[in-house]
Amino acid sequence: MPHPSEDDLALLALGEPSDDVGAHVGSCPSCARELRALRSTVDTARRADLTDLPLPPAAVWQRIADELGLEEPARARTATPARPGRPTPWRRPLLVGGAALLAAAASVVTVLAVRGPTAPPEVPLSALGGSDATGRVVLDARSVVVETDGLPEADGFYEVWLLDLGEGRMVALGALDDTGHGRLTVPAGVRLDDYPEVDVSLEPDDGDPAHSGDSVLRGPLPG
Amino acid sequence: MLRARRASDDTDLALAHAFAGGDETALREAYDRFGGLVHAFCVRSLPSRADAEEATAQVFVNAWRGRSGFDPARGSLGGWLLGIARRVVADICTAAARERALREALEQVRPVEEESTSPDQLVDRLLVADAMARLRPEQRQAVGLAFYDGLTHAQVASAMGLPLGTAKTHIRRGLAVLRRRLEVDGAAPE
Predict the structure, then answer these.
(1) I need a labelling partner for A126 at 20 to 30 A (CA). Which of A28, A105, A110, A150 fits?
(2) What is the CATH number assigned to the segment(s) B120-128+136-190?
(3) Does the interface predicted TM-score (ipTM) exceed 0.90?
(4) What is the structure's pLDDT at A110?
């Protein structure tokens, strides 16, 4: 048999059996080496704790900036929240192994539900900046519906934004209510396709309409 | 073998050069990009949140002061920062162990059980988590279903509403990105 395709080798490394590929790898040192490398990546990934890696609390940056005597504007938290490429439409299961079976079944159901033609897609928001909060967002026609749990009580209010980190553009939609819920209308003239992400920030009551840079939840805008 | 190369690699490389060149805004960007990764390592390696925050700040302070020792041609910024994090954490642990030994000698307290995950394994697992978060959404979803939910590629294809070949490709490419990241920044030998 000729060398298997890279696709098939990857599937074998993940444990999908294939007699043809297995037989070839058994007699081909270079494919066997490749398979070992892929398996070791799979093993590490399966043991990884795939929680988000949120930034530490703001005080940590403050300490760095103070210690190094940074000048503005390097010191300022960027108004466009950083860490591009962090949309997390795939809510990763935290469990690995046998105990994950239930979670596995549930997440498949979630995927199917999200893909289904009837249910409006609900997408989880990821916590940022050391917050323990959780959130979900649904796009209902031109309304962005945000549900949150566990946002800490704080001075100020929680504002919902549409974000395009690539272009550094954002639109303020409005504030969450006291229960951490918001149903916010997207202004006419705003093209939803232009904004891949939804962001929730803590805004001080200082009369400044710009983003505070203090994002607590973020996730992709459901399509 | 072909290795997946992604736009985020180029972004990271540009950031590494700006950092090495002493651009202060690059320090802030490096913190935004890798602060979560470094902090996760510190949180999981140290018993107290306060120590972990102190350590994270120390990593970036040390990195900035020692940036002349960083050569983007020889390694990635993320890997270099994690190397500093390991030294900072090790120093704190040594100091803490000394203190604990003293306290135990005084109070005869039972020793704290050793952490079973080695720093190498921890670094690798965090790198995978970071790389996963930066996969393209469809790759991340396919890889997640195949890795963590144990679905076959046919089940992944059906769950995502994709042709079989596309599901296979997403899985293979996603796996290649994770592998590459481990080979570039990872601690464990191959």
Answers:
(1) A105
(2) 1.10.10.10
(3) no
(4) 42
Residues 55-84 of chain A whose Cβ lies under 8 A from any Cβ of chain B: 55-57, 59-61, 63-64, 67-68, 70-71, 73-75, 78, 81-84
Question: Which of A160, A140, A141, A155 has its CA nearest to residue A216?
Answer: A160
- Do A14 and B37 make contact, defined as CB atoms within 8 angstroms? no
Q: Could you tell me which residues are beta bridge partners of residue A172?
A: A161
> Any idea where the domains of chain B sit in the sequence?
1-115, 120-128+136-190
Asked if residue A20 belongs to a domain, the reply is: yes
**Residue pLDDT, tens place only, B54-92:** 999 999 999 999 999 999 888 889 999 999 999 999 888
User: DSSP label at A134?
Assistant: E
- Residue A19 counted as domain residue: yes
Q: Does the pLDDT at position A93 exceed 60? A: no
Do A20 and A64 fall into the same domain?
no
CA distance B96 to chain A (A): 21
Strands (E), chain A: 122-127, 134-140, 143-149, 157-164, 169-175, 181-185, 197-203, 215-220
